[in-house]
Amino acid sequence: GKTDVIEISVLRHPEVSGQYMINNEGKIQYEFVGDVVIEGMVKDQVREKIVELLSIYVVAPEVIIKIVGYNSKVVYVIGEVGAPGKIFMRGDTITVREALVQAGLPLLTASTRKGKLITPSSDGNPKHMKVDVYALLYEGDLRENRIMVPGDTLYVPATGLTKVMRAIQ
Question: How far apart are CA 73 and CA 86, in angstroms?
Fold first, then answer.
């Protein structure tokens, strides 16, 4: 996807090897051949395309493709967690538990029974689902381990006492 970073290694040809970011048009700017559209392709498809394009310049190119950075698909974890912010996804989905672990788990100031999963919608009415983070993490209730898709936000609110103490400060 856009803003992902791939590494192209051509064996015995370092002059055409390197890391490339996929731009907003879904293309990489690749030496000798110019812009190459690769958005939406899997690694094998990209490898085949690069081999085909390099065959004009290199005899039997041996190409290796690695995905270095997954930057195009993100979810957000906000509120009372160790490191709130963006979570970069490695696939098309991520579970609430994985997102929480990557975000540094809930803090002691979190109201873990009142978590919310917010899924945006094109009509302007986001979908809200309750997530009992405490049951998921500390009681092993996997029914609370919902699937998050790119653009989702997991909100772990502060406890009432925490809000009062912050207001007093």
Answer: 10
Q: Count the residues in the chain.
A: 169
**Which segments of the chain are extended strands (E)?**
5-10, 18-21, 27-30, 34-37, 63-69, 74-79, 85-88, 94-95, 115-119, 127-131, 147-148, 153-156
Spatial CA neighbour of 13 closest among 73, 58, 68, 65: 58
pLDDT in tens, 101-140: 999 999 999 999 999 999 999 998 999 999 999 999 999 9
Exposed, middle or buried, 78 (CB in 10 Å: 0-12/13-18/19+)? middle
pTM of the model: 0.75
